[in-house]
Design brief:
With about 90 residues, this protein is an alpha+beta fold. The protein has helices at about 10-25, 40-50, 65-70; strands spanning about 1-10, 25-30, 35, 60-65. Helices cover about 35% and strands about 25% of the residues. This is CRISPR-associated endoribonuclease Cas2.
């Protein structure tokens, strides 16, 4: 499944931990946005890891993209990285 994950985390230490978790599953697109191509099992694992580090005032949103939606992605301006690393 293709996911887009965004986060809004104020503390650097926690934000860096979430960044490292997401980096293990997919491609950093810009600032607080990752694009992932992962399995259902990997999604559960990733979400559990994130839940384990974020605080009550942090926000992480996961958007699942359908095949039709993925085909309609448009990049304007500088192209973001195309390679998706699935290192877990």
């Amino acid at each position: 499944m293709r996911l887009v994950v965004t986060y809004d985390i104020s503390k650097d230490k926690i934000r860096n931990r979430v960044f490292r978790i997401l980096e293990g599953y997919g491609a950093w697109k810009q600032y607080s946005i990752f694009e992932l191509e992962i399995t259902d099992v990997q999604r559960v694992q990733m979400e559990e890891k994130i839940r384990g580090v974020i605080g009550p005032h942090d926000r992480v949103r996961v958007y699942e993209l359908c095949t039709r939606c993925v085909g309609k992605i448009t990049d304007l301006g500088e192209q973001s990285p195309e390679s998706l690393s699935n290192v877990v």
